[in-house]
């Protein structure tokens, strides 16, 4: 039983650490200049984006493309492209993190 509790604690801490790292990546990448986790800034809250795309099979690919290329209309705003400053791997990580927010 102690091993099970320890394993659950390690997994939980790892997930919390990963969430913190992904939030730090959002800050480093400049996303938080226009977005926040739970409230609209210039762009929608990340949680609102997650809610809008919840359950959609193509959400990851669609949002990666939007982050990479920029776009407008989804939330009545204009998002500039980030391809020049954020790697594809980081975009994938950021979008996965955003879509996992509740």
User: How many β-strand stretches?
Assistant: 2
- CATH homologous superfamily designation: Cytochrome c-like domain
Give the domain tally: 1
N-to-C span: 30 Å
* Helix/strand order, N-terminal first: HHHEEH
Give the number of helices: 4
Shape: globular
CATH architecture: Orthogonal Bundle
What's the story with the biggest beta sheet?
A: 2 strands, antiparallel
Strand-pairing-aware structural class: mainly alpha
- Strand numbers in spatial order across the main sheet: 1-2
CATH topology: Cytochrome Bc1 Complex, Chain D, domain 2
Concise summary:
With 102 residues, the chain is mostly helical. Helices cover 58% and strands 4% of the residues.
Characterization of this structure:
With 102 residues, the chain is mainly α. It has one domain (2-100): Cytochrome Bc1 Complex, Chain D, domain 2, CATH 1.10.760. Helix content is 58%, strand content 4%. It has helices at residues 2-28, 46-53, 59-69, 88-100; strands at residues 71-72, 78-79. Strands 1-2 form a two-stranded antiparallel ribbon. A hairpin with a 5-residue loop joins strand 1 and strand 2 (78-79).
Summarize the topology.
Layout: H1 2-28, H2 46-53, H3 59-69, E1 71-72, E2 78-79, H4 88-100
Antiparallel strand pairs: 1-2
Helix pairs in contact: 1-4, 3-4
